[in-house]
Design brief:
heterodimer, A: mainly alpha, 3 helices, 74% helix, flat, B: mainly alpha, 0% strand
């Protein structure tokens, strides 16, 4: 059986990732409870994106797996970002 | 030609099966991604109604469910670590804990939706029809997106149940753990979607 360098995440690293995700969640709740106008949503989305990146890289193992997966995910997220940008240009300037 | 070819052809290819799983995840990202765009556009058009309507939602129960999903994501990741290090018993325990947490999430969701239904807030209810367009859109999207997400949780529970049995009978093991890894990827996806659903529906300021 072809044994390619399987990276095994430690239990400790999983716990660290979980704690950082929970801390970011609490931070989101705190930030959205103070009034910052439109920055509330921006901050909430920014933190959500950071959390998503942590889940993708560590829990979904993109950081340690073959590069092909990371390339595919980046490509799809880029396409999605373009769709969002085009939609918003349409709605903001029509 | 060669006689020993008929013996057993092994089609095991962990890289390809993971690529297949990721391709499926991409379709899911675009499915929910489309819904997030619909949400953004309607919120942009009805900011006041979305803000008022979101106050009907219970932040505490949303926060509890967020943490439940994050913990379950960790336990499923830990089950992979356990299997890779050859600890079958611990693998089974982690998968079971993940399933349990998923069920707790669904029970919370049941009570949350139940409270809404009790206040006459459900798709097509007379009360909801009497509200403004923005309110209807908010609750329509709320029920549709959290409902679609809950269906994904149910599918995940079934999937993890199958994987549990396969780990138990040994067809998923330390050498062949692709199914557990791919099931884990699916479960993280469900978590990933909730990471965006939670602030967008519960935490509008």
């Amino acid at each position: 059986m072809s044994e390619h360098k399987n990276h095994i995440s430690s239990y400790k690293s999983h716990i660290v990732v979980l704690l950082s995700l929970i801390m970011l969640t609490i931070l989101t709740v705190t930030i959205t409870s103070v009034h910052l106008g439109p920055f509330n949503t921006a901050a909430a989305m920014l933190i959500a994106s950071v959390k998503a990146a942590i889940v993708l890289l560590y829990f979904m193992h993109l950081k340690f797996d073959e590069k092909i997966y990371r390339f595919m995910v980046t490509l799809v997220l880029a396409i999605y970002a373009v769709v969002i940008i085009i939609t918003f240009f349409d709605y903001l300037y029509r | 030609m060669e006689q020993n070819h008929t013996e057993h052809v092994d089609h095991f290819d962990p890289v390809a099966s993971k690529i297949g799983m990721w391709l499926f995840i991409f379709t899911e990202i675009l499915l929910f991604g489309g819904l997030f765009i619909v949400y953004s556009v309607y919120r942009y058009k009805h900011p006041v109604e979305f803000h008022l309507a979101h106050q009907e939602l219970d932040v505490t129960i949303g926060l509890i469910n967020t943490i439940i999903l994050l913990v379950s994501s960790m336990t499923v990741a830990m089950s992979i670590t356990a299997l890779q290090t050859g600890n079958k018993k611990l693998t089974l325990i982690f998968i079971a804990v993940t399933i349990l947490l998923a069920l707790v999430f669904l029970v919370n969701k049941y009570f949350e939706w139940g409270a809404k239904f009790h206040h006459d807030i459900y798709p097509g209810s007379e009360f909801l029809m009497s509200l403004s367009k923005g309110d209807m859109l908010f609750f329509g999207l709320y029920f549709f997106m959290t409902g679609l997400h809950a269906i994904h949780i149910i599918v995940g529970v079934v999937l993890l149940g199958v994987i549990y049995m396969k780990v138990q009978n040994g067809s998923v093991n330390q050498q062949r753990f692709s199914l557990l890894e791919n099931g884990g990827l699916y479960w993280h996806l469900v978590d990933l979607i909730w990471i965006f659903l939670f602030p967008l529906f519960y935490l509008i300021h």
